[in-house]
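Example for tutorial group B:
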């Protein structure tokens, strides 16, 4: 019997984590976000109705499920409040079952400004961040000058911390970026108003999660981004600023490493990336355009077109290793339905890259598989899949050393093949 299950991305994000978390939440008591922030965009489609979640865990659409935002998440209060209000406007009960860690770092207006100023300054070398202030907020956390949710709740503490930290950042904004500094009174006033809104939802999340475990309840840990965006294991510096790999599920929530029972690695049947940086299997031809069109590959947060390419098994195998993946979920298999042949990258011309220039110089080598050229959309049984599709899945499992436990055959909650239930 599994007590806690981690669902995370094994590529550059947008693997379909939100859809799978929503599906598995049927058998969970609580869903927990443990890293990242509102750079994430998790899409849920239920009976043709689309919801995109950024900060709120993808369990929120199941009545009665508790949703936690752990200490590892960077929280932009404005974005959070907007998301709460939007969901409530569509009839979802949020405030009575959303809990926010008082230890989570806050994304303040100067973080957003700095993120955008830095990207503009970098010009062509820009990372292509979501411009949400994610990096600068994590930097303040590590520099031990960050403002946490708990600090927002105490007007005096907030005033003192904000005075010091704003002086520091305004110096950089004015003198390094030659931009307009932020006004203390305005930032302070806004922060107090935001604090008043979220106050009743702020709790000791770690304590609450352990209570769930003590009572024999099940936790679903929802990752954001993907392994190749991990600050340590990804394509640095073209990465996000958190650890997106499974260790974060522990540090970003307060569960012990031994309390993680299962890690579900989500991978698309091909690859996408949004933003800049190396992407060895990227396609610039008709196949790439076909993947983008059939997969409707536009960012759920920024609306930017996603770059597309073949599935990279070398990178996937590494993701399986660094995350300790128990089982894989292969999503968007249906997107490959029209292809005559399908390629999988099975080796690089070098050892696994460890630096930016090594990543840039990777040359992928491929194995070509026959396509099936028939519709798999919405299939729910493995036996119904064409044999060529099953052979592709078998190859992925054998190559990476991780069994395929789930297959997703369409964007809707109901379009899945469940081979082994991660929740049991
Ligand atoms: P996340 O960030 O990992 O939650 O993924 P996103 O929501 O950003 O992007 C995944 C996109 O693919 C969304 O638009 C989903 O609705 C869609 N999607 C998820 N699974 C499938 C699938 O199996 N087939 C198809 N065609 N679309 C899917
Ligand atoms: P989900 O959870 C895809 C990318 C950005 C950029 C880099 C750094 O929906 O999979 P940041 O704003 O985090 O400093 O940007 O990371 N990125 C994502 N790409 N999916 C995401 O989240 C992403 N979150 C950040 O595009 O390249
Ligand atoms: Mg996304």
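The residue assignment follows.
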């Amino acid at each position: 019997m599994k007590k806690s299950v981690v669902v995370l991305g094994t590529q550059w994000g947008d693997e379909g984590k939100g859809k799978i978390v929503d599906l598995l939440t049927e058998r969970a008591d609580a869903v927990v976000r443990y890293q990242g922030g509102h750079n994430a965009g998790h899409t849920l489609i239920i009976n043709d109705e689309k919801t995109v979640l950024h900060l709120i865990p993808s369990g929120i659409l199941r009545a009665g499920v508790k949703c936690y935002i752990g200490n590892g998440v960077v929280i932009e209060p404005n974005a959070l409040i907007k998301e709460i209000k939007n969901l409530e406007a569509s009839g979802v009960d949020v405030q009575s079952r959303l809990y926010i860690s008082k230890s989570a770092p806050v994304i303040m207006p100067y973080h957003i400004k700095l993120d955008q100023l830095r990207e503009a300054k970098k010009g062509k070398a820009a990372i292509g961040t979501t411009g949400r202030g994610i990096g600068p907020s994590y930097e303040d956390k590590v520099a031990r000058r960050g403002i946490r949710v708990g600090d927002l709740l105490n007007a005096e503490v907030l005033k003192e911390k904000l005075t010091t930290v704003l002086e520091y950042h305004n110096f950089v904004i004015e003198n390094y970026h030659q931009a307009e500094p932020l006004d203390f009174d305005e930032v302070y006033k806004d922060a107090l108003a935001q604090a008043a809104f979220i106050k009743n939802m702020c709790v000791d999340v770690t304590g609450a999660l352990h209570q769930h475990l003590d009572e024999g309840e099940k936790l679903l840990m929802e990752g954001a981004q993907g392994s190749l965006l991990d600050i340590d294991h990804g394509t640095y510096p073209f990465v996000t600023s958190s650890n997106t790999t499974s260790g974060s599920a522990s540090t970003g929530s307060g569960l012990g490493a031994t309390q993680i029972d299962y890690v579900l690695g989500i991978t698309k049947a091909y690859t996408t990336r949004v933003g800049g940086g190396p992407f060895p299997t990227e396609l610039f031809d008709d196949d790439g355009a076909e993947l983008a069109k059939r997969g409707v590959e536009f960012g759920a947060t920024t609306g930017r077109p996603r770059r597309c390419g073949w599935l990279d098994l070398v990178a996937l195998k590494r993701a399986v290793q660094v995350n300790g993946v128990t089982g894989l979920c292969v999503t968007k298999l249906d997107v490959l339905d029209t292809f005559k042949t399908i390629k999988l990258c099975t080796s690089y011309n070098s050892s696994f890259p460890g630096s930016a220039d090594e990543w840039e110089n990777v040359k992928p080598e491929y194995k070509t598989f026959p396509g099936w050229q028939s519709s798999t959309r919405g299939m729910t049984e493995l036996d119904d899949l064409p044999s060529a599709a099953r052979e592709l899945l078998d190859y992925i499992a054998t190559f990476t050393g991780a069994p395929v436990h789930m297959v997703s055959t369409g964007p809707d909650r109901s379009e899945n093949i469940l081979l082994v239930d991660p929740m049991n």
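The pocket of guanosine-5'-diphosphate (ligand 1) is lined by residues 9, 13-19, 41-43, 45, 300, 331-332, 334-335, 408-411 (CB under 6 Å). Compare this with the pattern of hydrophobic and polar residues in the output above.
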